Amino acid sequence: MARTNPPTPTLIDCDPGIDDALALLLAAASDELQIVGVTTVAGNRTVEMTADNACRVLDLAGRPDVPVHAGCGHALTLPGARTNTVHGEDGLGGVELPRSRGATAQHAVDVIEQALLHEPAGSLTLVAIGPLTNLALAEIKRPGLLKRAQRVLVMGGAAFCDGNITPSAEFNFHADALAAQTVLASGAQVLLFGLDVTRQAVMPVDWVDSLGTLGNRCGPIARDLIRGFRRDKPLLHDTCPVAWLIAPELFNSERCRVEVDWRPGLTEGHLAAKRIALAREDFGSPVEVFTSVQSDALRELLRQRLARLP
Description:
By secondary structure, the protein is α/β, with parallel strands linked by helices. Helix content is 32%, strand content 18%. The chain has helices at residues 18-28, 47-60, 108-118, 133-141, 171-175, 177-184, 195-198, 205-210, 218-227, 239-246, 295-306; strands at residues 8-14, 33-40, 68-70, 125-128, 151-155, 190-193, 251-260, 271-275, 285-293.
């Protein structure tokens, strides 16, 4: 009998958001992952709303067992959150999802700290698909904490392409640039899924429409969520790191040294990246930067997994 690998203990830090919702649905539908918890941060919407949305999405997926913990309501050095309405005023494109619960009373930063300290070092994978405030604050509170993770998968940055908020900055890194630099410089094993790869993860209209024919509750709702994007070409940004945990063969990456400009100004949130063979050793931090994905196979993986849900 063939041996199967045990599921990967995974904690997901997010800011739902439509693409975060799709990533949560993919994770919930995948036996390869053991979701130990979901933490939320201000980003696409306020932290209260992102926590509420995470509860709604997990309940939709039939996973009320996964606890949700709200975290930081604004960036490390800003008095308020940098949010947007690309995902609609409610963060879910106007799609109404019922919920049966709210977030726990535990703060997300404390949950991240406890999860990494109470489990053996190298056993827990962190997937961060929103601004990195929660992870950075946990690292500031207890230096060296993030190195206890097996790996830290981050959706953020634009290494070798233009940004999507400013000419040089991607939204998650711009929302809290100092937090992004703190996480990348933490010494953890960071895998970076920025706009270089996520801009390839397109969702054609016919594929989106096909989700409505899956014969379950989640398929048509996922279709309606995607239709709620206030952009012409919605992308599977946050699905990419979750998909890598399930099917890493779909992705290609390069080893680079990186540094985030965290200072206020025109280049705030810019990710400076240099391929490691060409970079000075005193520049930045070594991370894995993902540069390509087989987009057809990625969409098929998501569609197949959505079909498993209620």
